[in-house]
Amino acid sequence: MIRWRASLLEWALMVLISAFLFVEFFRLNDFLFASLEHAQGINWVFLPAGFRVLLVLVLGVPGALGIATGTLWLNMDRLDSPWLLFLMATGLASGFGPWCVKYAMEKRGWLNPELRNINSACLLQFVLLYAAVNAVSHQIIFWGFSLTDSRPWVDVWPMFIGDLVGALVVLYAFKMSLPWLRSLVQSRS
Predict the structure, then answer these.
(1) Which DSSP category does 150 fall into?
(2) What's the DSSP call for residue 78?
(3) Could you read off the pLDDT of 19-36 as tens digits, one per residue?
(4) Which of 18, 21, 114, 168 is the most core-located residue (most Cβ within 10 A)?
(5) What pTM, to 2 d.p., does this model score?
(6) Which region, left, alpha or beta, applies to residue 147 given φ > 0 means left and ψ of -120 to 50 means alpha?
(7) For residue 42, what are the β-bridge partners?
(8) CATH code at 117?
């Protein structure tokens, strides 16, 4: 019984930390790249896309739930509005889009579930598939909820490029910082 509670507490903590970090990356992206916004919710550079990739690859479902929760957190002022279903749909697409790509790649044998032997080609394939799934799913949701300025055939490309560029920037920044992180951890042990 105690083991079950500890596992539930661990999941809840991973979800909350993921949500918090996703929200902060979203705010950082808004601060740095507000001028590169194509339309509301569509950026030519979207750093949280890279963070989505990291959270889902490393944490799996708790990371996806954290992203979905973070998306709702960012829109807290509209949660009691008629847009609640729209916000929930975009939250689920944001969090579970990358998780579905991860799951599909694992099932096809393209990605090891424990991320062993992951290489640049595999990461690039994941990022390309994720960016496509995310852009298409969001545009379907925008179109399905009849947003007045929704132009799915036009807006899907800037969202795809923004997610792709954002994910690659974050992943390569993370890769370049790994030696520094390793030396920091080793110096503390």
Answers:
(1) -
(2) G
(3) 999 899 888 888 887 766
(4) 18
(5) 0.82
(6) beta
(7) 39
(8) 1.10.1760
